[in-house]
Amino acid sequence: MADTKSKLARHYAAVVCGALALYFISCAPGALWQDSGLIQYRIWHNDIEGFLGLALSHPLFYIIAIGAKYVPLGESIHRVNLVSAIAAAAAVANMFLFVRLWLGRILPAAVAAITLALAHTFWRHASVIETYTLWTALYIGELIMLLQYTRTESVRWLYWLGLLSGLSIAVHMLASMPLSCYVVFFVFLLAKKELRVTDLAIIILLCIVGALPYEYLIIKNMIQTGDVAGTLASAAFGDRWQGAVLNTSLSMKIVKENLLYILLNFPTPNVLLFLTGLSALFRVSLHRGLRNVLLALTGLFFLFAFRYTVPDRYAFFLPFYCMVSILIGLGVYLLGEQVNRRVLAFGVLTFSLLPVGVYAAAPVLAEKMHLKIGTRDDIPYRDNNEYFLRPWKRGYTGADRFAAEALGLVDRNAIIYADITTVGPLLLAQQVGGKRPDVKIISGTLNSEGAPRFDEHTIAQLLTDRSIYVVSPRPGYCPAFILENYDFIRAGILWRVIESKRVK
Known about the structure:
This protein is mainly alpha-helical. 63% of the residues lie in helices and 4% in strands.
């Protein structure tokens, strides 16, 4: 027994090291666009609450990332980005451990781990600073605890499940879906008298302890605002996303995009083994409760992401991709019962690595085929096909280059209006790099310290006193009161706002 545990520990460590090597190599070295840039800004300011509603606060993730910022090794922004890489390596190793413990064989576990590791969305989020890889590591840890309970019936595994579930909630509200399945599972255990009420109380207490960072923010906001209902809505949906979270309608455009997202993440014949594994859940020896939880989670995660309508909904398929990886591992296990294992190992491992070549070729193919991936094309130093279709970000410095050039070309005491994609790099260059403190960065989300009021009532006077620039003169990325009343002239990578020559 001790030798088996030691061997399993060595295998787990080997997977961790391999995944760390991959993600350390592919990790972005500096500032990033959009959500990742806002995350870097929050970490720089030690902000665990954020400014977009409590559901987007992710406090435990920020506590860990803020701690990484103070580690005296290398550049601070690079260290912050590596938090996602390290968490991703833990998630891949946990995937290996779950399938290995469940099926008892290395090949299915290795294929499941490689499948998750090289899935486009997961790899991309391991290469930039985001919350999802840490949540994934905790979530698969929960499944390991649930599996161990069904194998041993020792309640201590459920204690760990409760704690990990609480920690997951403190990282991301995606954890609410697995938690709902665990609750049903616990109710059945209570009804069958396989779980005592006192044990359930301990599980709940440990879940509460794990979720303390999030609970602290909720209670603090309730006290500060006196608005209990509003605070709970913010904790569940954020400030503006209730409609998207509860959406029940679909268009053909969304359906096609979602299918392409899934195809991009599994561009390998191995994906067919998902169907084999899904059907096999009803045929393999498996605790009924665990089977029901796995099936429920697969369906819930798929349906949640598929009818979600936020622009970056591709990221919310990640939990479903975890389930796909597990079931592909199960498919490999069953196939090993029917064909030569050496031939099988060579075939499925080769197919597992196929996505790397697909991602390398994807930008070139997209350009040759004149395919549009649906992202804006006016961001300086960002080739959209390469940036979005290749998950690795090694050596990418486009956001740093943009910020340095933009701040360098504007007049003294100028104002730059930046959209949500570009405001993060500009503020980081100014506040972390100390570049052009005289310039005021303004956006609909974040502003430089001491930035003046900027609206239709003040812009005329501001334009008299100083130069005003925008990153993009497009609707949605520039205020309507500027687009409707002023003109623009090109100023390097920015646009300068000037008095309109149009007849009023």
